[in-house]
Design brief:
Elements lengths: L2 E6 L1 E2 L11 E2 L2 H20 L5 E9 L7 H14 L1 E12 L9 H7 L3 E7 L3 H7 L5 H13 L5 E7 L6 H14 L3 E6 L7 H7 L8 H17 L3 E4 L2 E3 L6 H7 L4 E4 L4 E4 L5 E4 L4 H9 L6 E5 L2 H12 L6 E2 H8 L3 H4 L1 H6 L4 E4 L2 E4 L1 H5 L1 H4 L5
Parallel strand pairs: 1-4, 1-11, 2-3, 4-5, 5-6, 6-7, 7-8
Antiparallel strand pairs: 8-10, 9-10, 12-13, 13-14, 15-17, 16-17
Helix pairs in contact: 1-2, 2-3, 6-8
């Protein structure tokens, strides 16, 4: 397997915009959860799936609610049952409002070598609207504490198109982030996902999000400012200094296999044309399956040649690397243009073929959801 993902479904307080599986942290559940993850790892190993792990990602939820000792025990168990490569990228998501500054060094000693810090914004008003538990100064202090602890690979989250946000406010955030000089930035436009408190507020007219014109201007402003500062815009929402792209996430977009461990986690197996699996987003059911020694993962999709080809295009065109035509032809028997001539023609303004590699321009990424429909 190329990647190993652990879902930690606990939060001190769920953000109004979040639609990932998470529950408010109960101390007893948090304390017992690493044992479930270790049991799940052992179950997978018993089924004969023992491969080299090149990346590990602790996501959530709020993984930093697990102590460094818990994280260390999970990494050690993974290495025992599988084999973690010597240069594996091991990422921990951490929220400034749910991690002590003194613990960063302990996470580093536990084996974590990459930190994804959920800063989101450096505007106190916006942080309050988002329901974050930290303010600007606390977020910056957490970043500096991580640096002091020895982290030399840090990703910061930046959200834009926030309620009543102005371009001037976005510029202030960008200035602050660039002054911090993280190795990586993940920049997401705020969306009102169904069944979230934010969606309800927007639907009821309590809160309004910026229109499409603002979103477009903000997206291109972020692209221009970060690329001018030396960041590679390597995926729709992600920027990195040279050598600091997220190896784990690139595995997702390149359709490489990964194993998801934990309630609400997803996996991809590259058998034949591939299959996707999920652990149901139910902590009690997850616990019961493991107690009963039953497979906790459920197959949710099995691909054939055509659906694998379409998903490959969908994922690859999210990245600057795009689609290597010779590799695509070797895999599916057709070039991209032969497989989808009408879609290629319709996207010609935004789709570039550079020495046999197809990719979208940043302005094409801006309308990705529209352009990709022709390939699906």
């Amino acid at each position: 397997m190329a990647g190993l993902y652990f879902h930690i479904p606990f939060c001190r307080q769920k953000c109004s915009y979040c639609d990932f599986y998470s529950i408010e942290a109960c101390q007893a559940e948090v304390q017992s959860y690493p044992g479930l993850l270790r049991k799940h790892l052992a179950w997978v190993a018993e089924q004969g799936r023992k491969e080299l792990i090149n990346s590990i990602y602790f996501g959530g939820g709020t993984p930093s609610l697990l102590t460094p000792e818990m994280i260390a025990s999970i990494i050690q168990t993974a290495d025992h049952h599988f084999l973690i490569s010597a240069n594996a990228e091991i990422t921990l998501e951490a929220n400034p409002g749910a991690v002590s500054k003194s613990s960063f060094g302990e996470y580093r000693n536990a084996g974590v070598n990459r930190l994804s810090l959920g800063l989101q914004s450096c505007n106190d008003d916006q942080l309050a609207k988002l329901g974050r538990l930290h303010n600007r100064d606390e977020g910056i202090a957490a970043y500096k504490a991580a640096r002091k602890a020895g982290f030399d690979d840090i990703s910061l989250d930046l959200m834009f198109a926030l309620p009543d946000q102005t371009i001037a406010e976005l510029e202030t955030d960008l200035h602050t982030y660039l002054a911090l000089a993280p190795e990586h930035l993940s920049c997401y436009g705020l969306t009102a996902e169904p069944e979230t408190p934010l969606h309800r507020k927007v639907t009821e007219g309590i809160m309004a999000l910026p229109d499409e014109d603002f979103y477009a201007e903000a997206f291109m402003r972020i692209h221009d400012r970060l690329t001018a500062a030396g960041y590679d815009h390597y995926e729709i929402a992600n920027f990195a200094l040279d050598g600091y792209s997220s190896r784990h996430n690139m595995g997702y977009w390149q359709r490489r296999p990964y194993l998801g461990i934990g309630a609400g986690a997803h996996s991809f197996q590259d058998d034949q044309w591939g299959s996707r699996w999920e652990v149901p987003a139910n902590l009690s059911a997850y616990n019961q399956d493991l107690q009963d020694r039953q497979e906790p993962m459920r197959c949710i999709e099995t691909f054939n040649r055509e659906s694998a080809m379409r998903e490959t295009i969908y994922l690859a065109l999210r990245t600057r690397q795009g689609i290597n035509d010779s590799e695509f032809q070797k895999r599916f028997g057709l070039t991209l243009q032969e497989a989808f001539p009408e879609a290629v023609e319709a996207s010609a303004q935004w789709l570039v073929n550079d020495a046999g590699r197809w990719s979208l321009t940043p302005s094409g990424w801006l309308i990705f959801d529209h352009l990709i429909l022709a390939f699906l």
